[in-house]
Amino acid sequence: MATYNLGHGIIAQLIIHILRTVLLKQAAEQLLTRKNPQKGALKAHALKAVYGIYYLSTSTAYYLWNVSIGYEACCFLGLLAIACCYSGTPPKKLWASLTLFCIDLSCTLAAAFAFQKNQLGFPPYLVLAASVLLLLASVAAINHVSGSKGFQQGLFGMEQTWFLPPSASIAILSFLSYAKPENNRIASAICICILAMNLSVFFLYYKTTENYAHLRERDLYKQQTAFYQNQLEIIMESQSRIRSLRHDMKNHILALQAAVKNGNQQETQAYLEKMQEFMVNPTEYVMTGNEDIDSLMNYKIRKATELLHTVKTNIQIPENLNLNSFDLNIILGNLLDNAIEAALQTEEKSLEIEIATDRGIMFFHIQNSSNESPSQKNGNLQTTKSDRQNHGMGIKNAKAILEKYHGDLDILYGPGYFEADAMLYMGEL
């Protein structure tokens, strides 16, 4: 009979650990973004394998050691390995791992103090079940706060501030776990309070990133208004030239008839070329037929030609592209602003822009003259300006949007040049 009960207890633990792993997966995917699914099914299979290993290792550790330092270390290392399978900066992955571990540990210890460490002798699987119920409530709260958008697109800033709550919470929980307090109810209540505090941090983080997104959208709408205003001026100028040409069309036809009648082919050709030159609007640098691309690029190239010596463009984009102009403006706008500003500091003052599409993929190539190679920290380029708090966000913002659409950004630089090459899947944009 004891063997029968033992076997049922192990089976119950395994089933409960499945639920716990699924809940942690849901919470992780609220914080982090999956890597590019376009690169094949291998990434998805690797992620499933990591979750499988996490489930097996934590289940085994709980069976061998119950709630102990070995089990907790296994849980944290497993969550860290899971976070590494997602996209994002290393600080954000570490913060996500710490936060998820803190919430899971709070649920586990709250249940352990409430049920396990007493004279009633509850079996381990009931303690585990109670902790999973708490985890279920926590994940439901996270999902409710984040809604459908989640936290994935929030730019992880103020790293030291966001690291403090989970780190301090883990330290307190570890102390409670090994201090073996006499009053288990108070210890359990402390764990619940720590859990509530970390869930409130989720809410604060979501509101912070939401507020940042609103501010960014406001600035981008202002920029888009300037782009469209510039494009409207270009269109009005082109229409004015057409009206002028049409007004004088009778005289032009008479002049061409006289040249043809006299058999003067060179004069006829020269006259037609002058008419064509008159029709060309010098402020219309890009004419792809795509309103969003044209308005953005004409505005930026006009700014570049006013400031720089050399501006070369080669933009080949189909007219009937269905693009998210808002996110596209973030990518191109930030990359072009950085390139123009960097080129302006050099003697050459040169800029080269190439945009092309091929088989559902859009390619960007932006190269500018540069005086110095940028420094890097944790794989991220660092601004050379003294005010680091308010600068150096351009490439980071572009990377965030590219990551959102599973695109890539490669940065190349050397003596005298800086190059940004981006690739974006148009089917997702």
Structure description:
By secondary structure, the protein is of the alpha+beta class. The protein is built from twelve helices and nine strands. Strand 6 and strand 7 (380-382) form a beta hairpin. Mean pLDDT is 76; it is low at 37-41, 152-159 and 386-392.
Which descriptors apply to this entry?
single chain, alpha+beta, 2 domains, five-stranded mixed β-sheet, two-stranded antiparallel sheet
Compile the SSE list and pairings.
Elements (H helix, E strand, L loop, with lengths): L1 H30 L1 E2 L7 H24 L3 H16 L1 E2 L2 H27 L7 H23 L12 H21 L4 H64 L1 H13 L3 H15 L11 H17 L2 E7 L8 H20 L5 E9 L2 E9 L5 E3 L2 E3 L11 H11 L3 E7 L2 E9 L4
Helix pairs in contact: 1-2, 1-4, 1-5, 2-3, 3-4, 4-5, 4-6, 4-7, 5-7, 6-7, 7-10, 10-11, 11-12
Short description:
The protein has helices at 2-31, 42-65, 69-84, 90-116, 124-146, 159-179, 184-247, 249-261, 265-279, 291-307, 325-344, 394-404, and strands at 33-34, 86-87, 310-316, 350-358, 361-369, 375-377, 380-382, 408-414, 417-425. With 429 residues, the protein is α+β, with helices and mostly antiparallel strands. The chain folds into two domains: 2-216, no CATH class; 285-429, Histidine kinase-like ATPase, C-terminal domain (Heat Shock Protein 90).
Stretches where pLDDT is under 50 for at least 5 consecutive residues are: 37-41, 152-159, 386-392
* Helix-and-strand structural type: alpha+beta
Helix content: 55-70%
Q: What radius of gyration results from the CA coordinates?
A: 31 Å
Structural domains: how many: 2
Distance between the termini: 61 Å
Total beta strand runs: 9
Order of helices and strands: HEHHEHHHHHHHEHEEEEHEE
What is the mean predicted local confidence, pLDDT?
A: 76
What's the story with the biggest beta sheet?
A: 5 strands, mixed
- Work out the strand percent: 5-15%
